[in-house]
Write a structure and sequence with these properties.
Radius of gyration: 31 Å
Number of helices: 24
Shape: globular
Number of strands: 19
Distance between the termini: 64 Å
Length: 702
């Protein structure tokens, strides 16, 4: 009960204080009545109790309003209704009690309805604010009533200031060709309820003159009786369709790189992974390099940047693939045939020459290069030197940590690590990247500590920015929706989900042994482990084999399922269907899957502290002694599954903290602010949401 008490103490204390306020209010009302009783006699026996009921119902809700109503009847009947000093009820006293009870019930019901209405309004406001598209609502006269956060970013309008302004005067709307002004057209169409005549594709201009190509959808806002209350206008920057073609091509004909764009440009260098514009439906829900690069790139584009993601070309992939407005993937050959990721560094000179040739041919100028993983860092180091452009490196994983993990696993299995030469080469390359890069961005506090301790980085050259998540997809739902989702997945029993890194043998074994503790007391529970089994390194394959053997030894073969893939469109519901989510491994980085699970309202238990320190999730009490004790972890999981109040508490804490600056929008703003403060060589685009004092225009050579 220690964890339950630690998390529920404040809530129970608040509830007991509510009871105290109810009793105290009734006592005060009774004491006030005594001096005036000779004057009032048996008139209005509930005169001083009704204000107490009203105040309690408004402050604490219906339950406490009804309690105050019931308790007020006792002193009123005993002291102020004849016969006095007796609980005997006369006919007139019964009428007084009935009148007061009806009044108390009405006040309590109205206060509860008001509280629910306020909660619904707050829920709707938060929902609209988190939508990835810009939304503007107006009244029937075309005056702006509401702008969500994306609309404020798109138009650079201040929400409170814009409310009440006419739509045609607040927004600047242009036709698709950029020549005709549509402000008057929209104003007249909204006033005359002629929204069907509005063009679907248009250009929205911000206050600073920046233009965004969008698709608009205008719909009527109707009350339950069908009466029109206003209009809702949604501005959407389309994503590619299922066929891989852009729904609305933001690139000019003959300019696939959009090189003529006046927007500032950022290069993402990511050679290691297989990047594609479409969601990777066959990838495990473990976040990862590709998801990080794509998520950050899309948000940077929404802030007013052109984003080029440079990677290697695999098989028959297209050279240029549009991800969305102002974001594209550029693929270049790296060697004459397929090369495994471990040997990529050998062919980087070839890839670098191809990249330089294309950059110079199109005269692309970059504000800075952001490289990912160590092979991307090697490529960006050369490009940075040749182009004279600042280089910001995000390592994601570190050779030193992987080497130590491999050595620890080898000692446990009485074998020698077979990858010592590659680790040595990688660590030497990482040191050279860190020495020459302008800034190193760590993704967790653990990773930052390793960079300081083992690589000798100076604190002023390294900053920590955790990964983010897409708040428009990952959000919590109510209990009714969650039950529907569980039925769809066929979950009728307690479900524990976990993300495991096979590079960390100890954490994986800890997970399995902890579930054995759960299974002893809750045999119906099932355990789902999300792990990528398609491209395992030899060492990871050996860990997986040992895990399967351990599961069979513990008699859990029918209760543990290894999920290698979750379709991208089902990931959010997959998290919501679980009773608890466990993060295992990843000492060097906090995976996005844990943030997504927290945002979906699933109680999240981190075995390692990387996510705790990066997200400050408020669950540090759950991390105590979990790194080496399967019995403790198993008991924690059991208590969360059994205790609905504890689950609700953890769910609320997780959703609040995940939304506190850990969305991709918040991460992108922090990244740009940090990059500008460090390099001071470029100016942020107006409306980007980040202010960098003293930043100068870029001076990047082509």
């Amino acid at each position: 009960m220690t964890i339950n008490k630690a998390l529920s103490h404040d809530q129970h204390r608040v509830q007991w204080s509510h009871y105290g306020w109810v009793l105290g209010g009734i006592l005060v009302a009774t004491l006030i009545r005594f001096p005036v009783q000779p004057i009032l006699r048996d008139v209005a026996p509930f005169l001083f109790y009704l204000p107490v009921v009203i105040a309690v119902a408004i402050a604490f809700g219906q339950r406490f309003g009804l309690l105050a109503t019931a308790l007020s009847v006792l002193p009123a009947n005993y002291f102020w209704m004849p016969p006095e000093n007796s609980f005997e009820v006369t006919w007139s006293g019964a009428v007084h009690m009935l009148d007061f009870s009806v009044a108390g019930l009405s006040v309590s019901w109205l206060s509860e309805a008001g509280r629910k209405r306020k909660q619904l309004q707050e829920h709707l406001r938060a929902t609209l604010a988190s939508v990835g598209d810009a939304i503007v609502t107006t009244d029937c006269c075309g005056r702006i009533v509401y702008l969500n956060s994306m609309a404020e970013v798109l138009t650079e309008l201040d929400g409170p200031t814009a409310i009440g302004c006419m739509l045609g005067s607040a927004l600047t709307l242009l036709a698709e060709d950029g020549r005709q002004v549509l402000n008057g057209t929209f104003q007249v169409a909204v006033n005359n309820d002629d929204i069907e005549s509005l063009p679907r594709r248009l250009i929205v201009c911000s206050k600073s003159g920046r233009r965004y190509r969008v698709e608009q959808r205008t719909s009527r806002i109707l009350d339950p009786s069908g009466r029109k209350l206003g209009m809702a206008i949604l501005f959407h920057q389309p994503e590619p369709d299922p066929e891989g073609l852009p729904a609305f091509d933001p690139v000019k004909p003959g300019d696939p790189l959009n090189a003529a764009s006046p927007l500032p440009r950022i290069a993402m260098i990511c050679i290691h992974g297989a990047l594609t514009a479409r969601p990777v439906g066959d990838a495990p829900a473990t976040g990862g390099l590709a998801a990080y690069v794509l998520g950050l790139s899309k948000r940077l584009a929404q802030m007013g940047y052109e984003i080029d993601i440079w990677t290697r070309k695999l098989e028959d992939q297209p050279e240029i693939e549009v991800v969305g407005a102002q974001v594209r993937i550029i693929r270049l050959p790296c060697g004459r045939s397929f090369i495994s990721p471990d040997r990529l560094s050998e062919c980087l000179p070839d890839w670098n020459e191809n990249a330089l040739r294309l950059i110079r041919a199109h005269q692309l100028k970059y504000e800075f290069l952001n490289s990912h993983y160590w092979d991307g860092g090697l490529a960006a180091r050369h490009l940075s030197r040749m182009l004279g452009v600042p280089h910001i490196h995000t390592p994601h994983a570190l050779g030193v940590w992987k080497k130590r993990q491999a050595e620890a696993d080898a000692r446990e299995s009485a074998a020698r690590p077979d990858a010592e030469p590659s680790f040595t080469k990688r660590i030497v390359s990482e040191r050279s990247i860190f020495a020459t890069a302008d800034l190193i961005v760590a993704t967790s506090p653990q990773q930052q500590e390793v960079l300081f301790r083992d690589y000798g980085l100076r604190p002023e050259k390294c900053r920590m920015i955790p990964p983010g998540y897409d708040e428009s997809r990952f959000f919590s739902v109510n209990d009714s929706a969650r039950l529907t989702i569980r039925r769809r997945f066929g979950f009728q029993m307690p479900v524990i989900q976990a993300v495991a890194s096979l590079a960390d043998n100890r954490s994986c074994e800890l997970l399995v042994r902890a579930f054995a503790v759960v299974s002893e007391q809750m045999p119906q529970a099932i355990f789902q482990v999300l792990v990528d089994r398609k491209a395992l390194a030899p060492q990871e394959a050996a860990v997986f084999i040992r895990l399967r053997a351990l599961i069979s030894e513990l008699g859990l073969a029918r209760k543990v399922a290894f999920e290698s893939a979750v379709p991208d469109h089902q990931r959010a519901d997959f998290y919501r269907a679980a009773d608890v989510f466990v993060l295992a491994g990843w000492e060097g980085s906090a995976p996005m899957a844990a943030l997504e699970a927290m945002a979906c309202g699933t109680p999240t238990v981190p075995i390692t502290r990387g996510l705790l320190q990066a997200a400050d999730s408020g669950q540090s009490d759950l991390a105590a002694d979990l790194c080496s004790n399967p019995e403790t972890l198993g008991n924690v999981l059991l208590e969360i599954i059994k205790d609905s109040e504890l689950r609700s508490e953890l769910s609320l804490k997780g959703t609040r903290q995940a939304g506190n600056g850990l969305t991709w929008a918040g991460i992108a703003r922090e990244f740009i602010t940090l990059a500008g403060n460090k390099n001071g060589r470029f100016q942020l685009p107006p409306g980007s949401g980040a202010v960098v004092p003293g930043a100068q225009p870029a001076d990047s050579a082509s």
